[in-house]
Amino acid sequence: MNSDALEPATVRHLDGVLARLQRDSRLPSVAAGLVRDGRMVWGRAIGTLDGRASGEPADLDTQYRMGSITKTFVAVAVMRLRDAGRLDLADRFEDHVPGSRLGGATIAQLLAHAAGVQAETNGPWWERTPGGSWDDLAGSPVVQRFRAGRRFHYSNVGYGALGELLARAHGESWFDVVRRELLAPLGMERTTARPVGKAAPGWAVHPFADVLLPEPEHDAGAMAPAGQLWTTVTDLAAWAAFAAGDTGDVLSADTLAEMFEPHVVGDNPGLPWTVAHGLGWQVWNVEGRRAVGHGGSMPGFLAGLRVDVESGDGLVSFTNSTAGPFGPQVSALLTEFMAREPKLPEPWHAAGDPGVLELVGLWHWGPSVTLATAVGDQLLLGAPGEGRGSRFERVGPDEWRGLDGYHLGEPLRVVRGADGSVSHLDLQSFRFTRTPYDPDADVPGGVDERGWA
């Protein structure tokens, strides 16, 4: 951590926000870290492990349970199998783990909580009792509550199923897969399946008195992939840097971006949507600004991971209390950090391609006017995010491909005349011409020979 990168007034303010949260919310301890440009730039732990004034102070190397943030690790491990060609996201779960009542759901639906699988187990509260095998869980039996693909329905059981898929694909436990393929390459040595070394005990804080009750901790067995991992602020900060794009050789940037695409919306009728699920990751949409990450809770613990997509700034946070005001309150750390220490934009440099000049300027789709501009090595038709405005990347001589919006993935072709000059643009059969309905540009349907009148 290098808090010297921040203004002293910012550090003091952030320390104060976290201290007030710990005190006002009556949390035994809290720990948080902020990440920018692949490293932790601020981190602090406040309180003691047992909540008493004489107790051992929490620090940035104290382990806490991350709860459902575990799901992001499971999801990345599954996507590595896809990238290796060992499965397809459209595969049915049954194709890889036969014998359950979840077989009709696809792997993509399980990752995005769109498989309709029941949320919790049929037995005792799994987060507070020892877990059994996958055969025990599947035979209980676990079922689909809704038609697969119909709606968002958060499912811890669904991630128990994905953990079993990992185990069968690799011939080792889901955690051994995560440790070998993700934790070790990222240097996350303090992330474990059970507490190791200095670890915070989980507490329930009485709602009406300043007293504590210990919460149990067990191996959740087949349900462990839904929320069992323990980690530290320092380790989870490395995962936040991963989510911000510092993926190393663990995952391709394209696959990570695919995981962040909203696949299913968490819909509350009558309210605008603010959160969706991608492939294992939550996606927040607040006033048009996107963030990705995941929340976590287990008896005795609350945790958070949040990364602003545009800036790459991230927040990790923990407390060892079952309940209490925490999530929105601790998220203020990221908001305050970004407001007080805005990330400066990269300087502009003249690095464009003069060869694209023949494509920029005004074009017409029928009577509609579209401005084409070049930004770096990309061609923009219209304003991305407005109407059908999209960015395009060059994929060959006179061939481009859409990068976003309505034309995502679609081909744009530059059509030239006999003299080699640009005649028009062909975008999914739409003809863009330099003048409205240019009769010389082979406009589909032809142009009335009487012309404009």
What does this entry look like structurally?
The protein is an alpha+beta fold. The protein has 2 domains: 1-345, Beta-lactamase (3-Layer(aba) Sandwich), CATH 3.40.710.10; 354-441, Lipocalin (Beta Barrel). Helices cover 23% and strands 23% of the residues. It has 10 helices and 20 strands. The strands form 4 sheets. The chain has an 8-stranded antiparallel beta sheet with strand order 2-1-12-11-10-9-8-7, sandwiched between helices. The chain has an 8-stranded antiparallel barrel with strand order 13-14-15-16-17-18-19-20. A two-stranded antiparallel sheet has the order 3-6. Strand 19 (422-427) and strand 20 form a beta hairpin. It is globular.
What brief labels describe this structure?
single chain, 453 residues, Beta-lactamase, 2 domains, eight-stranded antiparallel barrel, globular, Beta-lactam-related, Beta-lactamase family protein, DUF7586
What is the CATH domain class of the largest domain? Alpha Beta
Number of domains: 2
Q: What is the CATH topology assignment of the largest domain?
A: Beta-lactamase
CATH architectural name of the largest domain: 3-Layer(aba) Sandwich
Structural class comes to alpha+beta
Major β-sheet profile: 8 strands, antiparallel
Which strands sit side by side, in order, in the main sheet? 2-1-12-11-10-9-8-7
N-to-C order of helices and strands = HEEEHHHHHHEEEHHEEEEEEHEEEEEEEE
Average pLDDT rating? 94
Amino- and carboxy-terminal Cα gap: 70 Å
Described by the principal axes of the CA atoms, the overall outline is globular
Unreliable stretches (pLDDT < 50, length at least 5) are: none
How many DSSP H or I helices?
10
The gyration radius over C-alpha positions equals: 26 Å
Tell me the β content.
15-25%
